[in-house]
Model the fold of this input.
Amino acid sequence: MGDLCAPFEERVCRRLSPPVEFPVGRQIRDTTFQIVKMTMRNSGRNAGLAVLLTVGFLASSARADEAKSKEHPLAPVVRYAKLCLEKVESVPGYEATFYKREVVGRSTITQRMRLKIRHKPFSVYLYFEEPSAGREVIYVEGKNNGKLIAHEAGLLSIAGVMELAPTDALVMKENRYPITKAGIANTLRIMITEWEKEMKYGETEVKTFNNAKLGNLKCRVIETSHPRPRRQFNNHKIRLWVDASSGFPVRMQKYGFPRKAGEPAPIIEEYTFMNLKTDVRLSDADFDRNNSKYSF
Done:
């Protein structure tokens, strides 16, 4: 189980270089009028008039730059996350090896499973590899009276196939979210909602890492953080890992605030999607308990 707790090396290679700063606002306008005066002296009225026509454009650009510089640090993060969400939603479904590490109550639940997701109708198939090896779960939106279907393996299989509500206490004992919120798109929507709420407040730092490694994947990592606990902040840090080659999110993390200064931030949620296959054709059979490849 130790390997599952940290299945991949997290190595941030370097920060992005700081953006180049350009003069804005009054500085641009003052500079422009100096150019106009010099041009009129040296080239006459016609040349000066031509330059004057550019003043409005430059001043407008300056105002746009000023407005952009005043936007919340999370605004570009939300825009980028929504582009990632569009990327995920553009495929009908996918398969992946799903690593889950999350705090539920006073316990940290760590699991590895094979995952199939279909977006329409929303469907989930899970095969547990560790722990609870052999457990299978199926959920299809609008089917089975809104319930998930599950069975255990080994000695626990004596209980047979169970039909449970997604929010049943037995199910939520090992999950922070119901199965209706499973998958990359749903997890990303939750992060976006969190960021949008945080945009009402200050005290937010955003860092971008372009050469992070997740296994053999080169990733872009967006990290948002808050320096100190506040009632309006649910997390100390949030990290979004995006595969640099495909543009697909492959890991989402949330960290709590350290209990004491100098202590590492505790992981609250970590969802990792490896061996991602988006070119698969998933059919109703992939989410059918009667599938001969399954053990229901």
Summary: The domain at 75-129+180-278 is CATH 2.50.20 (outer membrane lipoprotein receptor (LolB), chain A).
